[in-house]
Amino acid sequence: MTTLDQAAVGDRLVIQTIRNPQSAIMALRLGIAAGEQVELAARIPGGPLVIQRGALQIALGRDICKDIEVHLS
Amino acid sequence: MTASQKPTPPQSPKSPATPPLQPVTAEKPAATPPKDTAKSGPQSTPKQVMVLAGNPNVGKSVIFNALTGSYTTVSNYPGTTVDIPKGIINGGSTLLQDTPGVYGLSSLTEEESVAQQSILAADFIINVVSALSLERDLFLTQQLIDYGKPLVLVVNQMDEARKRHITLDLSLLEKYLGVPVLPCIAIENHGIDAIREAIRQAETGNHPPCGNPTPDCPAPDTLAQLEEDPGTQTRIYGLRRQHVNAVCSHVAAYTDQKPTLSQTLGQWFLNPIVGALSGVIILLSLYQIVGVWIAGDLVDFTEGTIMLDGVIPAVQSLLGLLFAEGSIPYRLLGGEFGVLTMSIQYIFGVLFPLVLGFYIYVSVLEDCGYLPRIAVLLDGALSKIGLNGRAVIPLIIGLGCVTMATVSTRVLTTQRERTITTALLAITVPCSAQLGVIIGLMAITGGLKAWLVYMAILFTILVVLGSTLNHLLPGKSTPLVLDLPPMRMPCWRNVARKTWVRTVVFLKEAAPLFLLGSLLVSVMQVTGFLTVFQQWLSPITQQLLHLPGETAQAFVMGTVRRDFGAAGLYYLADRLTAVQLMTALIVITLFVPCIASVAVIWKERGLKECAAVFLSSWLIAFAAGALLCRLLAVVPIL
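Structure tokens for the assembled complex are given below, as produced in the milestone run.
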């Protein structure tokens, strides 16, 4: 178990929990919920991470990524 | 394989009474459909309000245009600055409203509140989703269904989905959701007629996340209230998300395939090096297109040939018939800053071509999916000044017109972000009218080197001001959550519509303020206050900024029209050294925003914030100018 901000590009991950409730609400609306499988599509140095789910790409600020617990699938 | 043979998707752990996810086949009475009122004629008052709702970038606007034809108006939602396009359909019986794209019915931003209120007040909803992002988009759909709104679901971008080997079983989706589902390729006009037919069959749908009616599940009309409580909201959102994902796992199938060109490009533009290079190209082309061609060549024609040589003399000779030349009413209406001369010349001769040209450019960048990627790349840097990647959009729009950009800060999530962005825009971002004149002046005196020094100084001030505000204001920047629409060729109808809506809103919002502003300055001129003000200011410019006393006049003019200030320097340019010119240009850029911006800041952010921005722009402009002229005297880079 680790947090999303530590994953590498190309990792396939399963989301465990989103710790911050406000982040969770925003993420839930976009389709990111506990139990979902995502792929890390890009890491912007010093900036957000981009995750891919199906045809959808979502950029998440670094701080949110620290609140999302994941494990490798 | 029929629906009943499919495995039952996971159920919500919190509501054991939830029935398994089953397509509902039972006959359900359709919600009262909009009546066919062909007899009532187009003049009658619409009896029903139908709202187009959907996530951002799903093609809602294209569908809105296709359904309403050209009979549309754009108006502000009461009490806000959010624009709601409206049109009449069904022979006059139904008012169709577009809404800002939202991911769910909550009120994180002003746009979301407006969308929420419009949707909740609607009689019927056309919910547009993208075939490319069904899992994301159906969250809103299910929320609408849970709220008991009758709706028709339109699945757009079916062609793009096919290209990406995404197969969707829409009839199964229809059964799961309990609402009519229609495929559509809006940009090719496929499926629009079917939508027109189907809006009569809007249905209220099934309510599975709570397994209605279980004791745990509230009635649709109390659900909206319940969801305002954060704890309950998280729980209900979780259940809804699980349900939607379960539905999607049945109706959508993805086949692995080679990435399309759009995906490769999208990935490419997320690379910081490509991003930086493209950023340079964008800024250079902006300089060429907006600064040189539009602000230079085109405005020369619209302001010089059309206005100064044609319209203005005609207006003045008409006024001459009514009032004696030199009389007070003549000077107020037709003088140097006259309401009927300067404001018309400025609005239609200068701003209209600039704003139109600039917004075509920005709409193309937006529509092809480039801007959101830049927002992602700049998120890290912007978070240092209390903003996040989203603030890129108002800041870029500010290079077109700061007044418009101040209005567009409504896309930002918190009041804190809006305050910081508004201050940065008003003080450090030059608008296209001003840039046009400044680029012209640079061309005479310093060229590209002066341009780079000018940009570097402004950038430094932007960073210092942003970091200061970030430290002073309580709170911190909100993290970015942004979906990246696929890269694509811009859809020209979309670009045309966005540009048009922005330009119309600009004319409606800013034009009356320019009229008022020029009246104010005319009064100041007629009463002699303008001269007093300039005399009062000139010692400051001489001693503090080492500039000739006359530059004070340029500064005062800059408060009316930002480019006036810069244009005032034209007459002095041959008497100024390179250092003096740079100092004057920086001071004019930082100095009080134009009168229309001040009015919009007042309206949007309140009197207190407006006064703070106004006063700090004075302070920062003169402090930066004083520092700069002394620094440039020691460091000979110009």
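The two ends of chain A are 11 Å apart (CA to CA). The mean pLDDT of chain A is 88. Further analysis is deferred to the final report.
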